[in-house]
Design brief:
The structure is a single chain. The chain has a 6-stranded parallel β-sheet, with helices on both faces. It is of the alpha/beta class.
């Protein structure tokens, strides 16, 4: 498990180690490149001595950069210190001379300044350095790109033959000052540390085995540069070959340029084996993050239903979360969990207060003695939180070191300032009292909220007090309009209350509607004819039964009339009809229907005819046809019906047979595809043959091409670089034998070379060995081998052979043992003999020197030798193979090609193959097209062997079908043509069965019609008519089952069988029908009366009707009023609400709001006072030495503060004084890189880690941070920018906007996404209130598209949208830029500045090239346009200056106004390419989301596009899809076909009542203003400007109650609304219940007061303008 974990950790680390050529520390590009040759990202420094240049920079000063004079001639190689260069020391040291001339100097300085400032702004890291000394070296593997360009039309760069990497770097800043003639540029430096190129040294060690020396110092200020350069030159000597140009060389150059650090520092830091304790072994959370699994080492997040008032109710002031800033309910939950010590991931969508939440968490943690590490990759993220803490007077407790190259002077001044910080006066007793007051005020406000929203169980329904109050208020408002309302109130006192007690709420609306109907009926007079009903017997007593009887009678009478008409029409004898059996009739109908439904049956056929013989003849032929059809494919059968098609089909098959493939089972489609493919391949190949070689096309055969392709594949896979030399061997050899001999000689030379190297390694000089000769060496060998044990001492020959060693040995080699010496002599003897033979080598066309050169370049193995011999054997003319190879090598299309194989064409030349394949394919395809799509498809899918069989079977079947057709036509049984093709034997058998089931003899006596001569169709119709009559009789009989009707008929008819006499039955029914119109009112009145009683109102109905008649008020309104009043009295509501009044609640709310705001301010002072007690612990040092390593922490910090220069490196300072530093500044703010370089390598040195903008941070960057902290809080937004460093390594002038949309896999998830897996329940930790957008239209799109409408968005008081669409005139998009759009952006910018110069502005584009173009144009205009220059000059703060950014850099920024340039648009031809750069890459939608959510007040969308210009695939969710939707939203105000709702209908009756009351006073009112999660109940439009609202009316109902805490429902929501420009009028239910009309008057007065105040303000503004103009 440990090894597996270590492997995963190492894999993470490897992602940090960028040793590729994209890293400017590995390969620095000194070429101009780009579209503008004068625009460099570097400047060369000349006339400076390296060591003196370093001293100059370290002095910390300001140096003006000088361009090269026109006539000057400089060498950019820096000189050595000598008598000739001594004059340089006396030159003016306040300037630095550059190599570039004035034109290139100006453009390049500006480009470098912009790039370095942009990166420092985004990442907080200085990337501008002076690099001194460059290593020249041959490009390593990986430095030269072998990938193909995505856009084949783009020019590709020639691979470099050499690379350059910097050695020593010093951080600087580039500034400029405006002069009358332009700008002067200055290099600013301070006391900083030299930086050695660790990336280069790591790469050299890993890949080349070179170890660069360490830079040594004479003293702390004097690095020994020349010594360092000398040691490097020594290390490079072994890499260069003697007598050849140097591939490895130290260049004495000095360059000012951009050097972006990779992540090497983090790579080195995460080598956990170098830590004091290995986090991989000892920290479970680190293990879980590396494994990506849920962690058991962190506590479960627990219940997230946390409400501030409940949570703090029983807590003391020391226990509550110390909020130093505002916190809404979603923020409060995560703050509480953070302070409880829970590790979690917090989702923070745009504008939801991530920084504010982090500020609160840090403040709360610090006061709990927690040591906090706050980390973010972007400087802005740290700066925002730091600024917030500084605003709370807590900035002194922050140690900010986002950039490890930060000035040490500034760093130590921060420590000194903290130690000297005076203590703030703070009165803890007052703080405690305020908290107690807050709790009491919360209690009072919440008591009102709870009382109003209390659930009441009334009549089985859950009604709240609030709903009950407002029903009563609504009734009072409605009834109060009537002058007789007093009568109703008197009636209320006398009405029996018990009558209303048992009525369920569900029945109220029905009772009310029935009461109104009763009232209408009671006003009509009764009919005197009701008494006539007594004359009839069997009349029911109740009105309901009487109504039913009349209804049944009416229906039955109508049915009898229709039945008797049908009998007459069909000439049916009624008495016979009564005796028929319905089941028998239905069976006969079924038989006829089956017969007629048979396929193509002749419905006019009569059953008298004899059909058995006809059907037998048909059956015989059908069986023959079916038997033959089994051999025929379905797709081929249609050709039988058309002779022309049959002939065409036959010709087509014969044409196919002409091809004669080798494999008879080959499918036709594959055959044709191969023909076409072969034609294309041959044609393409001919085109790709160079013109001078075209003559061989008449000689090259298909077999040549197949053999050549196979040989190319084998050769290019492993021996690509050896092709040229191999071709020499192939051409230089006559045949295979001569080639084998040539290879043998070269291999022998190679062996000789290896033997020579062995001899040298064993210490002998080769030239002396060759001079001595093979014979003498062999003699020495034999003498030594034959010597005795002590021969070396006594044998002269042995002593001679041994002594000769020194004569031929290399200097410095020791003499080997005798045994080893004999082996070396033997090796040397054989070598001399072989060298002698080698001199005799000769081969036609090759000198011995040629063979030796080849032996150095070609390394033979068995495979290479076999490949060459195979090529030689296949190609007697090697020119053929050379042509084939070069065509394949120059064109990627042949790399994986499979060349079709046809025996018939193998030995045909290319010209013949073209003609034959084209002819075959064209003829066959044209015939197939004439046959039609389906036959063609089936023929193509048929094997070649089946072609002739298909044709023979079709001819046999065609004869049988012709005979069958004649027989069917003569039979007259069928009515359709061409049945000979479709009728089956089963059809014939079934037809015989059906004819046998028919018998009509029973129906002949039923009618006077002659049915014997009827056709099948006529007989079926007749039987259906009989069946209908019988069904009608059954239907009539069914009516008699009703007791009421049966009783009535029994009393009025003599015959018990009512159907025997249809006349008398009809007469009895007619009596009741005549009375129908007179009984309606009587029946309805009685039904309603009984229904009301059944619903629960069992008395008092007459009283209600009388009062309604008297007062002219609807009886239902009276009932509703009495019902609600009865409920109110039952629960004693007046007593419940007696303690609440609107005035008292307003006073309480105002006190709470003021105290709550002040309490938060005091909390900052509380935290400040608490932290101020922490000071540096002063202790004695270890003895008399004042060396930093001997000092205790407190003394060390003081020592460093008091130093003027030569401060300790940050890592050493933190190692020696971390505890004291944390005591003084308990919150560290660092980037992952600075943490890696500065913090000690120890576990859990901080209590809490907070990571912001975590969606942009890779997990490997965060692991070291997590290892150093006990608790982890990860903050970010998964819907915003993912980790992406592609833009950092692109060419400076290149944007890949030609990127084609693909499905792309993200190489790594962010630490935020990983934290969601590891930290349990984190999905619930999400911020939800959106604050940034001052108008809801600015966030609506993102909220809906990316956040599923989860954000609480507060509506603006301005109607409409703040997304302003600005179309570009005559747009032109070319090479990632759009110049007309830049012009429109500048016009928009100036217009906005003139409109309101106080607003902060951000300009953002969708790619980097356009952003650079806009920045250039802005710089140009600033020099010419006073408006723009004044604006920029007045907005210099870090958080309000004018920014120009691109899609990748804009995250974390926000401004009042954002101008977006979409860049893309039509080209010179007016065509919009469907390519949109980074927007279509994986994560493009997240980049767009960031871009669209930066504005606080307004967005100008400057675009050359219409939404219709963007083409997207159905269901695609890329950035391109959302850009299209956003453009559509800007054009129409519609998101995804859904109108953005800004107003709606009132949610309940009381809102509707207030709305109507306000409208009656002459004001326009909208209900439910806003969209998504938060709406204002009612909003009154300003009568002078209906595009905005004058007043928001908020009720204290369910929405108010959902605020969870007094801070939310009584302060924050209203505070946010007022911040958005709203005036808020609060409706207190208790007041409105007591006196609704009075409160309406108060609302009216408030509106009038607002109108009056607004008019005064406008009048003052007009006067001020007039005064200014005068």
């Amino acid at each position: 498990m440990v090894s597996e974990l270590q492997a995963k950790a190492e894999k993470l680390r490897e992602r940090l180690l960028d040793l590729s050529g994209k890293n400017s520390f590995i390969r620095y590009n000194h070429t101009t490149g780009g579209k503008n040759p004068n625009k460099q990202r570097f400047l060369r420094i000349v006339n400076e001595i390296p060591e003196l240049l370093i001293q100059k920079l370290r002095r910390g000063s300001r140096y003006q950069l000088k361009a090269k004079p026109n006539e000057a001639n400089f060498d950019f190689n820096l000189p050595f210190i000598n008598t000739k260069t001594g004059a340089l020391l006396k030159k003016n040291t306040k300037s630095i001379q550059l190599y570039e001339d004035a034109k290139k100097f100006e453009i390049s300085c500006n480009a470098i300044r912009q790039d370095s400032n942009s990166y420092e702004k985004d990442k907080g890291i200085n990337v501008l350095y002076v690099a001194i000394g460059f290593l020249k070296y041959p490009p390593f593997r990986g430095l030269v790109s072998t990938s193909k360009p995505k856009n084949p039309n783009k020019k590709t760069r020639t691979p470099p033959t050499e690379a350059f990497a910097p050695l020593i770097l010093y951080p600087v800043k580039l500034t400029r000052e405006k002069t009358a003639s332009g700008f002067n540029y200055f290099l600013e430096t301070s006391e900083e540390e030299l930086i050695l190129n660790r990336s280069l040294s790591t790469k050299l060690t890993k890949e080349e085995g070179i170890t660069l020396p360490e830079l040594k110092y004479q003293d702390e200020d004097s690095p020994l540069i020349e010594r360092y350069f000398k040691e490097i030159n020594l290390a490079l000597e072994e890499k260069n070959e003697i007598g050849k140009p140097k591939k490895w060389e130290l260049k004495r150059w000095a360059t000012l340029g951009i050097f972006k650090f990779g992540k090497l520092a983090i790579y080195e830091d995460t080598n956990f084996e170098s830590w004091s304790r290995n986090p991989l072994l000892e920290k479970q959370l680190v293990q879980d993050f590396i494994n990506g699994v849920p962690s058991n080492s962190v506590e479960d997040i627990g219940d997230m239903d946390i409400y501030q008032d409940e949570f703090e109710k029983i807590q003391l002031v020391d226990q509550i979360p110390k909020l130093i800033a505002e916190a809404d309910s979603t923020q409060y939950k995560v703050i509480v969990k953070a302070l409880e010590g829970k590790s979690m991931a917090i989702q923070g969508p745009p504008g939801t207060g991530k920084s504010q939440t982090i500020t609160n968490i840090i403040g709360g943690l610090l006061v709990r003695n927690k040591k906090v590490l706050f980390a973010a990759d972007k400087y802005t993220a740290l700066e925002v939180v730091k600024q917030r803490l500084t605003d709370k007077n807590l900035g002194q407790y922050i140690l900010e070191l986002h950039n490890p190259s930060k000035s040490k002077k500034e760093f130590h001044e921060g420590l000194s300032s903290r130690l000297a910080k005076p203590q703030v006066r703070f009165f803890s007793d007052h703080y405690d009292d305020d908290f107690r007051k807050l709790k009491n005020l919360r209690k009072e406000l919440n008591e009102h909220v709870n009382a109003i929203n209390q659930k009441l169980d009334l009549d089985g329904s859950n009604t709240t007090v609030f709903e009950l109050i407002w029903r009563d208020v609504l009734n009072k408002i409605n009834l109060g309009k009537n002058s007789n309302f007093g009568v109703i109130q008197e009636f209320e006192d006398n009405f029996l209350k018990d009558l209303l007690k048992n009525i369920n709420k569900e029945n109220i609306s029905i009772i009310k509607s029935n009461l109104d109907l009763l009232s209408e009926l009671s006003d009509s007079s009764k009919n005197d004819e009701f008494l006539e009903l007594s004359k009839l017997k069997g009349i029911p007593e109740t009105g309901d039964d009487l109504s039913k009887l009349i209804r049944l009678s009416n229906n039955l009478f109508s049915t009898l009339e229709d039945f008797q008409k049908d009998l007459k029409t069909e000439k049916i004898i009624y008495s016979f009809l009564l005796n028929l059996n319905k089941e028998n009739i239905e069976n006969d109908i079924k038989s006829f229907e089956e017969l007629i439904s048979e396929k193509f049956i002749n419905k006019e056929f009569t059953i008298k005819e004899d059909i058995s013989e006809k059907l037998a003849n048909i059956y015989k032929l059908v069986v023959e046809r079916e038997s033959q059809e089994n051999y025929i494919e379905e797709w081929a059968k249609p050709f039988l019906e058309n002779q022309n098609k049959f002939d065409l089909f036959e010709n087509c098959l014969k044409e196919i047979e002409n091809i004669e493939p080798k494999d008879k089972n080959y499918k036709i489609k594959d055959l044709l595809n191969d023909l076409t493919e072969l034609y294309k391949t041959i044609s393409s190949f001919i085109r790709d043959i160079p013109n001078e070689k075209r003559r061989i096309t008449s000689k090259l055969t298909l077999l040549n091409l197949i053999d050549g392709a196979e040989s190319y594949k084998k050769f290019s896979q492993n021996y690509y670089d050896l092709f040229g030399d191999s071709l020499l061997l192939l051409k230089g050899s006559k045949d295979v034998d001569s080639l084998e001999e040539l290879i043998k000689q070269i291999k022998q030379i190679q062996k000789n070379n290896l033997d020579g190297e062995k001899i040298q390694k064993n210490g002998l000089d080769l030239s002396k060995v060759r001079d001595l000769g093979a014979e003498k060496l062999r003699e020495f060998t034999e003498i030594i081998r034959n010597s005795s044990f002590l021969g070396c001492l006594v044998d002269k020959e042995v002593k001679y052979a041994k002594s000769y060693w020194k004569k031929i040995a290399l200097p410095g080699f020791k003499k080997p043992s005798l045994k080893q010496m004999a082996k070396i002599y033997l090796l040397a003897s054989n070598y001399c003999e072989n060298i002698s033979d080698e001199e005799k080598f000769a081969f036609k066309g090759f000198e011995i020197s040629d063979l030796r050169d080849l032996s150095n370049r070609i390394k033979f193995d068995d495979n290479l030798e076999n490949i060459l011999i195979e090529i030689k054997s296949k190609f007697l003319e090697i020119d053929f193979f050379e042509v084939i190879y070069k065509v394949f090598d120059d064109n990627e299309i042949y790399n994986n090609i499979e060349i079709p194989y046809f025996d018939k064409l193998l030995n045909k030349n290319f010209i013949e193959i073209q003609e034959l394949t084209n002819s075959y394919a064209t003829n066959i395809f044209s015939k197939l097209k004439l046959l039609g799509e389906e036959p063609s498809s089936n023929i193509l899918d048929t094997s070649f062997s089946n072609i002739s069989l298909i044709l023979d079977d079709l001819k046999s079947l065609k004869i049988i079908i012709n005979n069958l057709g004649i027989t069917i036509n003569e039979s007259n049984i069928y009515c359709e043509k061409n049945l000979e093709y479709t009728v089956s034997s089963n059809d014939i058998n079934h037809l015989l069965e059906l004819f046998g089931n028919i018998d009509i003899s029973e129906y002949i006596q039923l009618t006077s019609k002659k049915i014997e001569g009827f056709s099948l169709k006529e007989l079926l119709s007749f039987l259906k008519g009989i069946n209908k009559l019988i069904e009608d009789l059954y239907s009539i009989s069914a009516n008699f089952e009703d007791n009421i009707l049966n009783f009535y008929l029994e009393e009025n008819l003599e015959d018990v069988d009512y159907l025997n006499d249809l006349g008398k039955l009809s007469e009895s029914l007619d009596y009741l029908i005549k009375l129908e119109s007179d009984l309606e009112s009587f029946i309805e009145f009685n039904r309603l009366r009984k229904n009301i009683s059944n619903l629960g109102l069992r008395g008092g109905i007459d009283q209600l009707l009388d009062v309604a008649n008297k007062t002219k008020i609807k009886v239902s309104d009276i009932f509703e009023y009495l019902y609600v009043r009865n409920q109110i009295k039952d629960i004693n509501l007046d007593k419940k609400l007696n303690k609440f009044s609107g005035q008292a609640l307003n006073v309480c709310k105002d006190q709470f709001c003021e105290l709550d705001v002040n309490f938060i301010k005091d909390t900052s002072n509380y935290v400040d006072q608490y932290l101020h007690r922490s000071t540096v612990k002063r202790e004695e040092s270890f003895g008399n030495s004042r060396s930093p390593k001997n000092l205790r922490e407190g003394d060390l910090i003081e020592h460093e503060i008091n130093k003027k220069r030569n401060h300790l490196p940050y890592r050493k300072l933190f190692d020696q004084a971390l505890i004291s530093l944390q005591r003084v500044k308990p919150c560290f703010m660092l980037s992952p890189s600075s943490a890696s370089q500065c913090l000690p390598k120890k576990i859990d040195i901080f209590d809490v880690l907070i990571i912001d903008e975590a969606s942009q941070m890779n997990p490997e960057e965060a692991i070291g941070l997590i290892a150093r902290c006990k608790q982890v809080i990860i903050v970010g937004d998964e819907k915003q920018l993912p980790p992406d460093n592609r833009w950092m390594s692109r060419d400076d002038d290149d944007d890949d906007d030609d990127y084609v949309e693909t499905v792309e896999f993200e190489s790594s998830e962010s630490i935020l996404e990983l934290a969601n897996k590891v930290l349990r329940n984190s999905r619930e930790c999400s911020l939800g209130w959106h604050y940034r957008s001052r108008h809801h239209s600015l966030i609506n799109f993102s909220n809906r598209s990316f956040y599923d409408n989860r954000l609480t968005v507060f509506p603006s008081n301005k109607i409409g949208s703040e997304i302003h669409l600005i179309k570009v005139e005559d747009p032109y998009y070319n090479e990632s830029k759009n110049l007309p759009e830049v012009k429109t952006v500048m016009e928009t910018l100036k217009s906005q500045i003139l409109d309101d110069p106080t607003k902060t502005i951000l300009i953002a584009s969708t790619n980097r090239a356009q952003a650079g173009l806009i920045q250039d144009e802005l710089d140009r205009l600033r020099n010419k346009d006073k408006v723009i220059n004044d604006y920029i000059s007045s907005h210099k703060g870090e958080l309000d200056k004018l920014l120009v950014m691109n899609l990748e850099t804009v995250q974390g920024e926000e401004r009042d106004v954002v101008i977006i340039s979409t860049v893309y648009g039509p080209d010179a031809n007016g065509v919009v390419a469907n390519r949109f750069g980074d927007l279509v890459r994986s994560g493009g939608e997240r980049r767009l989301n960031v871009l669209l959510t930066r504005a606080k007040e307004k967005v100008y969308l400057v675009t050359s596009l219409n939404s219709g210009d963007i083409r997207v695939s159905p269901g695609a969710v890329t950035g391109k899809r959302y850009l299209k939707d956003y453009l559509s939203f800007a054009e129409t105000g519609i998101i995804s076909d859904t109108l953005v709702r800004e107003s709606g209908e009132p949610e309940n009756d009381f809102e509707r009542a207030i709305m109507n009351a306000i409208k009656q006073r002459g004001y326009e009112v909208d209900a439910q203003i806003g969209c998504l999660n938060y709406r204002i109940d009612l909003a009154i439009k300003d009568p002078r400007d209906t595009s905005r609202y004058l007043l928001a009316v908020e009720c204290d109902g369910a929405t108010y109650h959902s605020g969870y805490s007094a801070r939310v429902h009584d302060r924050l929501r209203q505070q946010v609304l007022e911040g958005l420009g709203w005036n808020v009028f609060r409706i207190w239910s208790s007041d409105w219940w007591r006196a609704p009309e009075q409160k309406l008057e108060l609302l009216d007065e408030t509106i009038e007061e607002l109108l009056s105040n607004t008019e005064k303000e406008e009048s003052l503004e007009i006067n001020e303008i007039d005064n200014l103009e005068s």
